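PROTOCOL LOG
Step 1. Enter all chains and additional molecules of the complex.
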Amino acid sequence: MALLALTAVALMTIDARSTGPFASMRSAALTVTAPVRDLAGWAVRPIADAWQGAVHYDDLAAENDELRRDLAALEGRVASIEETEAELEALRAATGVDYLEQVPRVAATVVTDRTNGLERIIEIDRGTDDGVQVGMPVVVGDGLVGRVELAAGGRAEVLLITDGRLQIGVVAPRTRALGIAAGEGIDEALSLDLEEGAELRTGDRLETSGLDRSIYPGGIPVGRAVVADGGATLEPLADLERLVFVTVLLTTVDDATIDTTTSEPDGGGEG
Amino acid sequence: MRPHISWPHALAAIVGVVVVQVANFDRILLADKVRIDLPMLALIGIGFAAPPTTATVLGFVLGVTLDLFHLGPFGFHALVYCLVAYSLAQAKLRALQPGRAFLTFQGMVAAAVVTAVVWLAGAVFGQSPPKFDLGNVGVLLVVACIGGIAVHPATRLGGWMIEDRRP
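Step 2. Run joint prediction.
Step 3. Record the structure below.
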């Protein structure tokens, strides 16, 4: 027993120091079992959908009502949004702050969304064959979703920003306040560690700072601040509950210093 | 003679359990945060069916296989599962075994305790376990009920992984 326990501890130590061999094994397991898992998932999906429908019927009915209201409101806002977009395009052309558009990207479909209680992983149908590499940021239109943690030929696994292992250097564009957001667990708001004297209000939008040590390019929306009792948390802007399509920004730690929104020395999360 | 591991049975059961878990049950939440955890149930079955040394080895192999499909520290499940399998097998050796009802009770307790231990270990090793609150006590109660029901087939599965060579 002691020997096996020590072996397990040794495996964890090796994994902590160098992810190479185990990442390869995990990639191989991901690739080899993908057809079996897809088949098993396809076979059980009707049952799972029926179960989710039965369990969450009230939620779905309420969600439908909410979506109808949202649709009506959105139709009314389309015209103003188009006008705003035109203004934004003009602003971008004038200031040249369009670096995120320069980052190559690849769209992906979420094929698996699973949790073991300790971590939530989404699996996407793009991998190293498509240029996806470990460490690349994954986003949706609303903002940052997570980071590629494992990449194989045609598949990759993504850790969400709510995971306790992710840290993100953030900045509040309104006040230029810098901080580090860290995951606090599945369905939990991110904790926010702000620099000394930083000014922040509830509702302030924060985005990636893109500073030196950050693996994310600057300017990706992350969340909205909730300030209370002298502390602050961050509610993710991206709807992490219902991820169907995502976009992988094909940039890694080596070329993440594409641009930054500020030049202060602090605030770059280690990701 | 001591029971020995039937490796073809053990490997087939372990790989099957882990793949089915990852492909299906990790995606289906029965209630808010409750899911059926086949590897954990298999672990309980192993702990209840095998002697301590055998249970530890099988727990380790089950944990390593599970580690292949998760992004946490490699070896995390191997460590926790081999320790839990050993503890369950030791407890089983020392516990009274008067019948099915008591096995059901043991299964309930084991499922809740193992789940809590995995959460605790996850917190120690930098993962993101659920925060301990009243809602998660409810989760543990539901998990215990699942454990009580599933401990009977799980123990049979554990017995299938070993071959008892006693005459």
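Step 4. Note key features.
Chain B touches chain A through 47 residues (CB under 8 Å).
Residues 19 and 69 of chain B are 9 Å apart (CA to CA).
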